[in-house]
Amino acid sequence: MRIGVVTGISRSNPYVFYVRVEQKDGKPSHMLQIDDVVKVQFRYHPQGELVYYGVVVEIEAKWDFGPLSGYEEELALKGLSPASPIFLATVMTTRMLKIEDGRIVPDAPQVPPPPGAAVDLAREEEIDTALGFDEIIQKHYAIPIGVFRNGRPAYADVRYVLGENGAHINISGQSGVAAKTSYATFLVKSFLDTGNRLKDKNELMAALARARFIIFNVKGEGLLFLDKWSKDWKELQGTETGRSWQKMYETLQIHAEPFKIVKFYAPKKPHRDEPWVNKRNGGVETYGWDIVDIMKLGLFELLFDQEELEKNQNLQLAVMSVQEVLQQRFEDAILKAREFCRNNHIRIPADPEMAIRTAIANGFDVKASAGLPDGLDDLIEMFEKDEEFKTRVAQEVQGKSTIAALIRRLKAAKAVGFDLLWTKTDFLRFDSSKSKRIDWDRPGQVTVIDISKLRSRPQYFVVGAVLLEVMKSREEKSNQDPVFIFLDELNKYAPRYGGGALSSIFRDIAERGRSFRIILVGAEQTASEVDYRIITQSSTTVVGRQKGAELAKPEYSHLTNEQKARAALLQQGEMIVDQPFMRIPITIRFPLPAWCTREDGAAEERSKKELEERLFGGD
After folding, report:
1. What is residue 488's three-state secondary structure?
2. Single pTM value for the model
3. C-beta of residue 166 within 8 angstroms of C-beta of residue 539
């Protein structure tokens, strides 16, 4: 359908051109809309016939000439002065193609479409070609990420998700309005379902089907119900709105159902060895790290305030000194554990960690035999009773006041809840199945780690510990399956300035993680508050509804002015997505999650017997 011509009123270039919409009786012959896909075909010598596709990003209406004041406009409206309305559409080029031997091929010369060239509305079957989806669909690299306003699916390229060409996803937007967490869980569902559907087509999709997903629950207990139906979804079933959501899932070939393979973890309650949850009943395990984990992963520094360590060099030196002494003792402990196993005729595993854990499970005492603290209380006590420990630390740290300050920080760490995370090793003597280690490394599993009830510093510790464990597991082996890590409030854990050891861990994942197929899915209210080296490494950037003041920051320069204006008006369920293989960001919608993402939003589940009693009053 012809909609107009490339106009010469405004200057066009190969990347942006302007269309004067044709009119009939002073009105556009076609009601062109934002996001419509258009096509212009023209001859360019000596290259031959060229085909350009583009997306309408702005439409303006004005008089074609003359009226400059209200008086003159009034004359024009009464027909007393010659004037005609004109409609101009701004089009951003998405694809430049040329025709060779009757076939459309890429790599067209980049030239501006000439004024007067006819512009058509792209046909339904041309839209995938116009946006570059045709190639990734044909090669089975396409992952559904939502739908356009016309209901057609939009896609991401799996190569820019799994690290072949790029990795990491960042989602920003206003809290409670942008639906960042809902969209992140929707992406997880799309990754799982698409990977399983296309796993026989290529290795990337097979890897996606085997991926692991680690989700940190930072607010309430909403994400502890991903295996439950959403109450809102159930209530809308059978309604027109519900049917439209269902159709959207069917279009995207995603199953509208809760997650099937999910494990939930929470810290233990103070003074009680059971999961610290309020709304979720059952199915939650506790987590923690013992001295072996802390030494193996290098977690000791995360016990302290990272900003304070950056500002207080004496305290930082004291922390490093203690860590060095404990690390040396840990290495000696491995040798003693091997000797313990030999003396007791116990088979010694080759792996150092398993060697010391095997010894512990058979009675080896890390505190008495190796001089390692088995908890915060033991570490504080070592400053008073362990002469060799005190002497070695004092050799590195000048002044008793610094050591006293370090002891005060350790006591403060216990007060804010680190004793809930630093577990004892002796549980292995009784039952190795009671290990507090988070079992995240299983194909297709979603692991939800609740940190919402912890104070800020223990939260940092948990996030850092999990990230270090994931990195270590992937660095030690090659050809590993992908690991997706979703964390909301990224600006809190990797701030623009400061952040200490934890920010260093995030930077390492952002810059090297894709080599090991570790993909960070970060979300925050304001991208401008996140570490610059982290935010710029995301190959896929998603923007939900956002305030104009934030959109004026350089972090949103990938959006056009028109898209920034639209981002300030987006509704829940709408996102602007920017991807490397597309010339411009696209606006998409995603469906209401069928799974629960709110702690009070789980649909009530009843057994068959309970339903019969409710309906028929029992016997």
Report:
1. coil
2. 0.91
3. yes
